[in-house]
Amino acid sequence: MVSVTDLQTMYEQMVTARHYEERLVDEYLVGKQPAFDISAGPIPGELHLAAGHEASGAGVCMHLRDDDTVTAPHRPHHIAIAKGVDLKRMTAEIFGRKTGLCRGKGGHMHLFDPDVNFACSGIIAQGCPPAVGAAMAAKKRNTDSVAVAFLGEGAIDQGGFLESLNLAAVHDLPVVFVVEDNDWAISMPKDRVTDVQNGAQRAAGFDLPGVRIDSDDATAVYEAAGEAVMRARDGNGPTLIEVQVHRRMGHFMGDAEAYRPEADIDRAKQRDSIERLAEDLRSHGVTDDELDEIRERAHERVEEAISWAKEQPEPDPEEAYENVFTNPPAQAATDGGSAADASGDADETGGDN
Amino acid sequence: MATESRDYTEATETDRELTMSRAMVEAIAWEMRENEEVFYMGEDVADYGGIFSSTTGLLDEFGRDRVMDVPISETAYLGAAVGAAQAGMRPIAELMFVDFFGVAMDQIYNNMAKNTYMSGGSFSVPMVLTTAVGGTYNDAGQHSQTLYGTFAHLPGMKVVVPSTAYDAKGLMHSAIRDDDPVVYMFHKRLMGLGWMPSPSGPKTGVPKDDYTIPFGEADVKRPGDDVTVVTLGLHVHRAMEAAEQLDDDGIDAEVIDLRTLVPLDTETVLDSVRKTGKLLVVDEDYQSFGVTGEIIARAAEGALDDLSAVKRLAIPDVPIPYARSLEDEVNPGTDDIAAAVRELHE
Amino acid sequence: MSDAVDVNSTDSWPDDADDVAEGYLANWFVREGSAVDEGETLCEIQVEKVSIDVAAPATGAVTEILVAEGGDFDRGDVLARVQPSA
């Protein structure tokens, strides 16, 4: 059974993630109104927000340690927060700053934090194979680390996902696949792309357990994930979990969702996993004051991260030439004729082979 | 920059000669003994020992946990190699034929090649992607390509193409020890397989001890004053044969084996071109937008005033056909190289 | 000085190829004059598409190579001779 302390921790992570997305909306729209120019403002480019997905990230990551690996898809913020990714450096990355997690080379859907073994792939389902590889490494090294691959329900028809289920199953690898079903693959509803409405059924084809959680109930996610993570840690192989979540903010910022019935949008907003968890906490005797306190703490943390990020310097243009390799060639060999790039590359690690 | 290579001296000091496949395997086995984080996975690499003998004998010594047969599922296992490498292991993953890259290219070029850069250097991907390349044995358009240019074009991968057993071993040691992803492309015709006889060049003396060949150092296989021939892989041997023929006619060709495409040893090419003024580039990849064009562009950028003539020989932008007469037509042969050098020399 | 030792193809013949009479010499890894250690692979032969490594019968020097690379031979043919070192 989940303890009240764990429920409070999950609640804090979930309200942090929700407030984070709400605040990013404000920041993202700066410079993009009235005319929407995707490359304008302090946060340029695409922005896929995860409001409505919080239960999945929080419920799963409660069971993970820093040495466990997580790969996330293009909608990663709530998962990163729950996994313990450095919020300030993550925010600086989203703002494209020099001190960002990826020194301004990744952006919001390519967040990497080696301290907590967190990585992303912006390509649908393609974070699954590296998660399988991290699990393979854990098994070869005889550690009890596990890996978790998060993906959306739009990814369950993708080869990378299906191949990963098979490879993980045949080698009994310690990996958990978590499908976040928000009903929509951009504009494609699930029933128009697959006849399998319960994505967890995919597991049967690979002879591994599949669990579907029909409501975005953080407690239910916590319980199912606990079992799956324990199974993986104990050397009993992979599990597939599908969690029903809701997309509250469109596929990406600027998505007018003209394809989506009004009733569906309303339903998504009514079914709020955070409000549901607050109810649970109240029934466990947690007072409204205590919940307010958690929310306040979460909001402060978000504000602090955003203010810090905005003060960070932008990368120097020359840094574009760095980090192509960990062990860069000693000479300007791959520079396509421009002498500029070798300089930055070569000094970093000494450049010796 | 290597101009006159010391490799030959070392190579001839040993009594033992090896095929390229045996030299490769010797390096892999040595690294696996030294470092428990090194493992090999691919299709038919365990019991079979690799379709092109890239892993012969490894299963017996290291067992199934370190020499892993995997499902025919390139996206999953190449991506898994990326994940294991990011976790600090040193996987070697084999793509049976380079032509199969299409079913798994996302893992190769979006994850393997880019994760170092996109993480701002906080992650490394120290893996080797081994793959068989090349034609000349009538296997047609989906099993005969080299695709050198495709891999070298996309940033983030080091690309290695050995042409001799000596280089195959030294480059493999370097590849496994490198902290970056290395694509190690071995030419089937050079492996020394009983069922696909090699030309005489790739079997060389190979020291028993480990040694490395640094990336980015081309090898001048034959010094010459009249025409520079830049090539790699199988065509190193065809160019050497052509150079011997030309020598009889008093034409002195310099033959350069690039050995690695990324990094590319531009200086050795430029030094040679400054001397000869004439450049022929020979490649077994498609002609347009590829290796031949790149080498000529670098020569033009770096030594335009010294260049008086250039030519290139490559697969002339058609898929590689099956029938002998057709494949021989499109794959540059020794005579084609000799004829091109003669034209340049005129 | 002891006599040179024959490297007889029969000694490396696969057990399940008793009914096969011919082999093919795929690769030599030594030349005449090469120093070899006992057990070191001298050459690779093929019998019925199966590759077999032929080991040096003694430590010493390869004095003669009797079947050329790429050549066929009959079961029982001597492939090479090794002069054991003193």
From TrEMBL, chain B:
SMART domains: Transket_pyr. The keyword Ribonucleoprotein does not apply. Its cofactor is thiamine diphosphate. InterPro entries: THDP-binding, Transketo_C/PFOR_II, Transketolase-like_Pyr-bd, Transketolase_C. GO terms for biological process: organic acid metabolic process; sulfur compound biosynthetic process. It comes from the Archaea. Gene3D superfamilies: 3.40.50.920, 3.40.50.970. Residues 18-193 form the Transketolase-like pyrimidine-binding domain. Keywords: Oxidoreductase, Thiamine pyrophosphate. It holds the Pfam family Transketolase_C. This is 2-oxoacid dehydrogenase E1 component subunit beta. GO terms for molecular function: oxidoreductase activity.
